[in-house]
Every structure is written in structure tokens, then in C-alpha cells.
Amino acid sequence: MEIKNSSYITTADIGDVCPLFFKDFNLDGEISSANLEITALGVYEASLNGSRVGDFIMAPGWTAYNKRLQVQSYDVTTLIKKENRLCVTVGRGWFRSPMPGWEKMEGDKKRRYEQPCGLIAALILVFADGRKQIIRTDESWQVKESPIRFSEIYDGEIYDSTFTTDNSKPAETLSWSKDILISQEGEIVKEIEAIDACSIIRTPAGETVVDFGQEVTGYVRFTVNARCGDKVRFLHGEVLDKDGNFYNDNYRSAKAEVQYICKDGEQTWNPRLTFFGFRYIKLESWPGIPRKEDFKAIVVHSELHRTAYVETGFEPLNKLVSNVFWGQRDNYLDVPTDCPQRDERMGWTGDAEVFTKAASYNYDILKFMTKWLHDLAADQRPDGKVGKIIPDIILHGHSSAAWGDAAVICPWQLYQNYGDISILQQQFNSMKAWVDYITNTTPTPGLWTDHFHFGDWLALDAPEGDRIGASRIDLVATAYYANSTELLAKTGELLGNDMEEYWKLHSRIKTEFRKAFPVYITQTEHVLALQFNLTPDPEKTARDLAELVIKDGVQLRTGFTGTPYLLHVLSSYGYTDLAWKLLLRREYPSWLYSVDCGATTIWEHWDGIKQDGSFWSTSMNSFNHYAYGAVIDWIYEKAAGISHTDDHAGFTELLFQPHPCKEIGWLKVQFESRQGQILSYWKHEKDDTFTVMLETPVEAKVILPSGTRKVKAGKHTFIEQYK
For this structure, is 344 an active site residue? Predict the structure, then answer.
């Protein structure tokens, strides 16, 4: 990369204002190509002769900055003129914002806030006569204040369209590592679509609120006719309170605010170096009378190819599916975040781990997740410990079962869905280091004990306020220890390694688990024992689980670790009817409770809005958390029956075993696998009879009530009776 021969440049004493670096240069001949290599310590927006360079929003993205900083490359040939000005505005972004907002780590936050702004670039010009010229960042560049007076991840952006200045000064060089520079690895973040405002509300409290009808991640683009000096100011929120008033107390310390100082006349603007999670905005200041057509919500997230579509005959379930997809879109802005709105927005490993299977059906996420897993490996501690968030900016943070297990489960699941063994090759050392970390730190060989864990986070089987749930944390931890050890052993064998040591370890964990936990108490304890094949009597354990669910009022009581597997294990042991009842339940607690409350994304809590209209605690109540949306992978694999046989990762051989349901009438799932399009469709005809259709690009093993058979690629129709 030519950029490695450039210098980092910076500026001091500019405060919260985003600096604008610029370089003027003239050309003495015709060029055949111009390519800009660029990155920043912060986030940047570049322009050449007044035209924006590229469409990457929040470039260069978020990585483990101390070890990995992505470099973008743009073809700017068509923007070059004889006289040129290259401008780059640099904002704080993730690098220089005091993140995370909720942590009482004032020293760490201050350090991040005071980190230097930095820019490094190289513009490579190739002339028609073969000459080559490179414009590099160095002391010849100038820097001045930009109209962006403030920009930060949590608090928002302030823009003064009336601001101009001719006061510039030479940029300063900055000593910073170039060894961390890497080519762009992840998907770029783009403006994906624009959503029109659906209404402007005058609330009972007298507020003016714009409703976009859908919670999104991105920003608002508005048009206003104003006089010079008029101000636009608004706040972002996810929901209205039970009285219909604007509410964003759950954003905690994040101000999530936009301020814009107008020039004369009609003007259109949106923030440029930050983003928000929101459905509503509250206008605190607006020149004149706002109109719906003045506002658009610009949806911003990583560019992902959608690979699945789900339709059913039951509209509330369709809405749940929509909410799952929106939750993934909103939280896949360069890293798989927990939420896009409050003073957090972190790449929580636990959330990513439980949702990766669902996510890899919904969209092609291999490139997106590969980049994130490379950051996980980069931030992994020398002893193998994996932090609770990646990129890991909480240096003193805990590790936990299910969270740290993302190091193993995520690459394994990506291999299962895409059949690309390179992800296992790249992550094997990280996977092994995580399992070794557990083995080397537990004081009880074969079990994982005496360690902090999140347990079955936010489960409903413990009193409100107890976020870890009633499942025994050593049981949860040991179950995940067993699972990761088994997946590591399988991975090593696929790569041609001798994994006898880890198969023996897995056998020991299984033995010690059965000794330590001969009985299971909670729903999640039953679920994990079944899912990870740890129970000596799976039929009894499944029966006990079903009886426990029924005893609980046909209600799930599970949290982050139990919920993703609950319906799967019920279906695997003959209790699909009960699984359907849980999925279709409308009353709290259920997936459809939030749908009936008007949710447009997945909630963090089953009762984020309580039955009396009040809210869960403001301390932790996101209305856009995708983890419980993992249920959609049950719809793909069990309801629609789409999975692959054990030894055929990447759907090179299909396993088709649908589980229809009279109550929803029909189900249609289309999934674009690496082998081609798979279609599953079933429809209730009468009594217990269903028409079942399969379109497969590969040979399939079909399991239906009438028997098991192999079918060739193509379209197949069956008439089946399900008792």
C-alpha cells in the first residue's frame, strides 16, 4: 500500500470542532487514473473538488484500532481536474468518543476523548504519458475548522451552515504505527434506503414529535426554509410512553441530539459523522411549521446481501419476522452490536454468538463476521481470554461463558452455513486459545467454576432485578465449555490436526457435568443439557422440560443462553406442538407480546413495556436488541425444515424435515444457499392433511410422516398427514 509511505497528520487545540484537512494541487498533464488510499484515527468524510469521495458512511469503520486499522481505496479518476482541492473532515467516531458511556471508567474515557485526531492518505496519479505522481499527507497539508462544531457517537452532531473561515495553518505530523494498516476487510457501511415520516404528532405534553413508523439506525435528513441564524434542534427516541409523550430516558447518558444552524433559504442537511437508533424525533426548535415531507429517516448499515424470505398465513408472525430482519439491519453497522441507540452500541460477544445462526440465514454475513472475528482474535488476551465486547475497549472487562464462546461458536456456525473452511483455518488458534483459557483457569478439572459469568442473562425465572436468572452459573458455564471443546475438536479434525487431547477433554467434561448436575432445575438447564448432548437420558430430560414449560403456564422462562435453543430441543424430541404454542403465544411473556405492543424491532426484555404500559428500568431497556430474534433459525430449520445433513456443511446435501402448523395456515421460506435457491412451502388443506413442497438445488434427504427418502435436485410435492 502506497499509504504506508505517507505520514499521519493531525492538529492540536481545535477542541470539539471537527478539523478539515485540505491539500491544493495542480496537474500538468492528462491523467489515466487516480486512486485515493485513505484512513483516519476517528471517522472521516473526504471530498475532491467539492464531490464526496465514495459512499462509505463512518469510514474507516470500527476495528481493534491498536492492532488493525482498515484502509479504503477509491477510484477518483472522474473527479480530477487541472486545479484540485482534496478535503478530509475527521470526526471523533468510535476512536475518540468517550465510550462506553455507561461505564464508570472516567480515566479510560478521558484517555479516549483526548486521543489525537489523525489522518493518513495517498493519492496515486498516473498520467497518460506513463508518469506517476503521489500526493501524500505531510506538513504541506493545511487544516482549519469545519462547520461541524461537534460530533460524537453518543451525543450527536452540531453543524453551523453559516460558519466559514479562511484561517488555516499547516498540519502537524503525528507519530503513529503504520504496521496496523490493513486493507478494507469488512463490508462497507452505506445509506441503504430512505423512509418517509408517516406522521407529525402533537403529544399530550405539547411536544412536536415526528414518527417514521419504523425503528432504524442512521440519521434524519431534513429540508427547511429558514433565515440565516435560525436553529433546528431535535432529540431521538424509540418509543412513546403510555400517555403518548416522547420518551428516551432509556438512552441513559447518550444525548442523541442534533443541532443545525441555518443559512438563508431552503436547505437540506443530515449528520455526517455519527448515527442514531430511533423511530421518533422530538423537535425542540424548528423554523416555521414542520411538514411530514420535510423529514426522511436515512437507514444506514453494512451492505449485506439478503438471502432469505419468510411469509406465513399469520400476520403477527410475519411482523415478528420483519422485526427480526430490522433488528439485524439496525445492529449490523460494521460490528454486530447489542443496540444502536443508548450509550453502549458495543459488539457484545454473547449477543453475536446466539444470533449468528439466524443472521447467517437472513443475510450473507461471511465477510462481515470474518472481519469481526479477526478483531476478536486480535483483542484476545495472551492467556486466551475473550472480552465481553469486541472491539474490546473495556480492558478490565469480564469474560463469560456463552460470551467468550463466540470465539468458537461463530466461526463454526459460519462454516456450517457457508461451507467455507477458510474461516476455521483463520480462527483455529483463537478457538483453541479460548478452550485452553477455560481449562487453565478453572480450579475444578472438567467443570468451569469460580469465574464471573452472565449466566442465563435476563431470564424470567428469577426475581425482577436479578439479571443473571435462576439457572446455576456453573452448569451454564460447563455446558458451554463442553460444547466449545467438542466444536474445537471437530474443527481440528477438519483441518487435519490430531485432536485426541480435546476429545478426551470433552469426554471428561461430559462425565464431570453428569456427576455435578444429576438433575436440572430450570428450563434453560434442561435446554442446555439437551442441546449440548450432556444428559444421560435425553428422552426423560426432554419430557421433563416439556412438563416444566406446561407447568409454567406454557410460558418460556429462558434468557439469553436458553432461548435460542428452547424450541429446537422441543422439536428434536417430539414436542413441536408445544414449540409452536410458545412461538404463537400472544400474552406476556412471548415473542408476539412485543408485536402486539407495536414493536418494529426485537426488544432486550420480554417486558420492555409492561402490561400496565410502564417501562422496565431505564438502566437497561433497549427496544432494538436482536438476541431473542434468534428464534427465526427455528423457523428455517424446524418449521420450514431446511438444514443440511451432518457431513455436508454449506448445504451440499439438504436435510428436509418440515413441521407444519394448522394455526398459521401456510408457510413459505426461500433461502439462497451457497448451492442455490431452496424453497420450502407447506399449506394446511383439511383435518391433518398438508401439501408440502420442496425446491432444492442439491440432493436432499426428506423426512416426512409417510417415510424417509432421498430425492434429486428439483421441485417436489408431497401430500402428508401430520398427527
Answer: yes
